[in-house]
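re: ur question from earlier - yeah i can do the single chain one, its not a big deal. heres the input i used so u can compare w yours
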Amino acid sequence: GGPRRLLLVSNSTLHGGGYLGHCQQHIKSFLGQKVKRVLFVPYALHDRDGYARTAREKFESLGYGLDSIHESCDPVEAVRKSEAIFIGGGNTFRLLKALYDNSLIQEIRKRVLEDGIPYMGSSAGTNVATISINTTNDMPIVYPPSLQALGLVPFNINPHYLDPDVKSTHMGETREERIRQYHEEPNTPPVLGLREGAMLLVEGDKATLQGVTGARLFLRGKKPTEHEPGTDFSFLLIDSNLQNL
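and the output i got, formated as tokens:
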């Protein structure tokens, strides 16, 4: 075993760069020398073969082999044998439904929380690492049996967090208003709005904001707060009633 190790990235591609280009150094230092092969979960996109090719190319360029879970005849066994797991972005509802359909929720939880293998998520893969997918930006194009996700951390994340554009004439709700509506419901956990280019590194009971952009933290009943890269978010990992903070 070992403590949980998570790298939760807001987005796979940053404007002006290639797939995972903006976080490739973070990936290398996160996976380190011990991991030789990564198990990739492409369930968030319809074209799983194409997605696996893109991911394999990237990880091989960083020195890691990559196996895609959709090519395995036994996905549960693939998780049990994995050295590290990477769940990519796409549609969060499609992804979570496939995790349930393939009986992978408890298996991944066990590997990450009990066995201590590294877990990396990007976008939808970051969403499913949290308590629930209630704060995803995606359309519910399929119907998972539950909105409860892997629960590797005791809060929610909103990837691709967007600040309101003061010049915009768009009259729909801002991201901040949508998260506030979520927090109008009782007993809702904190939501970390990760801007594109940001990521959260979790090592045991320590959580640190990394990347090139900041994050916005929403606590129920409180004003949102702004945070720069390097912020220590370890207090979010305390699984008590954070509403009292």
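The longest strand covers residues 198-203. not sure if urs matches, ping me
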